[in-house]
Amino acid sequence: MTGLLIALIVIVVMVVVIAGSLVAMYNGLVTLRNEVKNAWAQIDVQLKRRHDLIPNLVETARGYMQHERGTLEAVTQARNVAQAARSSAGGAASPEAAKAEQALTTALGQFLVTVERYPDLKANQNFLALQEELASTENKIGFARQFYNDQVMQYNTRIQSVPANVLAGMFHFEPMDLFELKAEEERAVPLVKF
Amino acid sequence: MWEQIRANRRRSVIMVTVIAAILLALGYVIGLYFDPDSGAWFGVAAGVVVLVVLWTVAAVGGADILLDSANAREIRHDDAAQLFNIVEEMTIASGLPKTPRVFIIDTDAPNAFSVGTPEKSAVAVTSGLLMHLNRDELEGVIGHEIGHIRNQDTRFMTLAGIMMGAIILISYVFSRVAFYSGPGQRRSSSRGAGNAQAILFLVAILLAILAPIVAQLFYFACSRRREYMADASSATFTRYPEGLASALEKIERSAGLMTGVNRAVAPMYVVNPLEASGPSGLFSTHPPTADRVRILRSMAGAGLAAYEKAYSSVQGAALLGSATLSQAAEVQARPPSAEAEKEPLQKARETVDLLHQANGLLFVPCACGLKIKAPPSFAGATIRCPRCGAENAVPPPALLLKVQ
User: Which residues of B touch A (CB under 8 A)?
Assistant: First the structure.
């Protein structure tokens, strides 16, 4: 009789432990997925900030750069395209938006090379401050991307490895894409760092 | 990454528990010493009360007390835009839920420390740090500080530091009292068990002497390990270990210059301002800077795995658990940012400008390149440039953007 009782207790304890660890595993997956989503939101915030900064920068530069209308127009144009792509993507990751952002980065790089020819503009405190803000925003986009990719990597590893993969398959935890730029495009970014 | 934080937190809880246990054991023995019949539990109860009071103080006002004692004053974004931006950048890179508040300490010696929990934290840097470091180096140092906050070091070190202070104080007072007054009711209460009493007496004295030493050894060992882990975090955030390495060298060179440093805050700086440079002993809060620099410089990439490899080749032991490393991806270091090393004179000017700024002076750039400084009452007026004589309008303060 006591043997049966002990066996029963052991079984109950095992069931409780297994159920508990399944719940913990599921909750862990949900937490990870939310962290990934949150990390993407960070990138989006910084992209928006960049779009907001550029009109100010162009306005400040306009007074000094009468003969560079083309460069300024190119930046404004690229910024508008990127903003449109961003709002049509509705805060989600999209290849068009990434491409538009890349074009904007290139246009900004050309603009900042041109600025080198205007010492008056470079001495303008307003412009310098905007330039620091823009440089920092570029860095923040980079760091947000880095954090996002780290999170995605961790999430993907988790949902593909035993034993979480069983649970992930049952509750449709899909692997997510990394946010990546091509190698040669990546090299264009340091142009905007000062 | 999260595995590492969890492991770190587990170690922190163990550390706090051990130090708390030492405090309670001390209370037990002291109580037993004064009254063998019922004193022991009274001593433990007193220890619990002391612990609760200390924890409350640490939780409510610990960060502010430490910042105050370091004479740190809070700054806003416009006071030092670059510093502020770097703090924000590192916040994003580390995934901290909230940007720390930023404080400045007016001293020439470069150094930095941080306090608080991930939800409510602060980073303090000296004006000397802003003067001596370039952007990459500053980023490395801020990354180290944010690493401490993210790894929850700051939360537990504040707590452990306060408890250690209490243990040292109690042991000191007890050993004085025991020495001068001798055991109180011990002799009168039981004559028969003289031997046991004598042993108890010895144990009490021994524990009173050993408790602070054991607690400190424990605390310092944890502290040194945390410094390495914060270095590893900084390298991962910035993807540029060289920035922190060269910053550490610069800070080490003038670490002794810092005056008026509170002993309780000293272990929290990126390089301990009170410890002379040299070999690190059992009682050092920080590992030798030369070792830290050598590890950072010998990293093959910028990830945790690269740091672990460099650490074990220099120290001959493991730092991070294998569970953390199995999650860590291979990470490439990035090239240095394009900002060239600034001329020392230019940096000195920028920092002096920052201090002027803090005093409310306005800056008006003139077309000839001179930066005119004007008292705040000149806002909206026109001033003549002392070098070229051109008239310059002083805009209202809101439009003036501060020193870059």
Answer: 1-2, 81-82, 85-86, 88-90, 92-95, 237, 239, 327, 329, 335, 337-339, 363, 365, 367, 369, 399-402, 404
